[in-house]
């Protein structure tokens, strides 16, 4: 029997936030990137998720050489702390050029901006010693169906992916589908769409997906099934675990806090399919509650990691023979009752 996976964890510096949201201002003071990096190892994390402008602030103000130089300084800060850059994502959705989308914009100059910014993102990733680029296709969609040709939009997305693959022959592209944020009609809304793009690309081996719990829920899908689908294709590059209380605004709640059984099944599908054996990170994307005081700005990260590890223990300690007996007898009432008792620590 192979050794159990020893999971590695990551989060992005934006997860230590000031509490501002569309409905209210900041409630905590900001920390610098260096201060946030100092907390990773003490909290049990070694992977850092980056947007390009997390590593290089005001990235549009610098030349490619200046961008690479500044990114290398951050890369040294990671090495000094024993940290790894898991990926870098181009933050295209904040720029005036991308009001109508980036790669799928109706404006050719804006499409070119998106491509140029993406290439600089790849430069940042390589300077941070990472080969992984995440595409959250945030504004790649439309508010009005008739405003864009969806067929042309998919062609343009594929063209952008192929240009990225050609720009650097060693990078990997991870597509993170988010069906409802921020566009009314989003292109590539599910992992199935992402994997179809991967297969259509110039190098399918280098294109895969990243699944976020909350956004699967917001699409009316089960996160563990989405993960299983990607795993079946060998294309689950990473996960962003969190939770979501129903079909409302994007909440990024602590993992397992809204639906512990759903969280258990996400852990179970990862465990059963050997996720993490190739060094994949368990990524978190969780928000600090607005009610938290300044000195409690990282409790949500520690708590989500603890919940994940506790559920790993639950998955590994379950009675698989008993489960199989229930399955063979089609006694699904018995299986469900056993699962709930196991989760509550009530024995079989």
Brief rundown of the structure:
With 348 residues, the protein is an alpha/beta fold.
Description:
- The structure is a single chain.
- By secondary structure, the chain is α/β, with parallel strands linked by helices.
- It has two domains: 8-317, TIM Barrel; 318-348, no CATH class.
- 43% of the residues lie in helices and 13% in strands.
- The protein has helices at 33-43, 52-55, 64-80, 108-127, 150-167, 191-200, 213-218, 223-232, 260-272, 299-317, 320-328, 332-344, and strands spanning 8-11, 47-51, 84-89, 132-136, 141-142, 172-176, 185-186, 207-212, 236-241, 281-284.
- The protein has an eight-stranded parallel β-sheet. Strands 5-7 form a two-stranded antiparallel ribbon.
- Strand 9, helix 9 (260-272) and strand 10 form a beta-alpha-beta unit.
- Helix 3 runs parallel beside helix 4.
- It starts with 7 loop residues before the first strand and ends with a helix.
List keywords for this structure.
two-stranded antiparallel sheet; 348 residues; alpha/beta; globular; 10 strands
What is the CATH fold-level name of the largest domain? TIM Barrel
**Low-pLDDT windows of residues:** none
> What form results from the Cα inertia axes?
globular
User: Would you tell me the overall average pLDDT?
Assistant: 96
The major sheet is characterized as: 8 strands, parallel
Note the quaternary state here.
Answer: single chain
Number of domains: 2
Strand portion: 5-15%
Topology, number of strands = 10
Task: Give helix % range.
Answer: 40-55%
CATH architecture classification of the largest domain: Alpha-Beta Barrel
| Fourth-level CATH superfamily of the largest domain | Divalent-metal-dependent TIM barrel enzymes
The CATH class assignment of the largest domain is Alpha Beta
CA-based gyration radius = 21 Å
Q: Gap between N and C termini, in Å? A: 25 Å
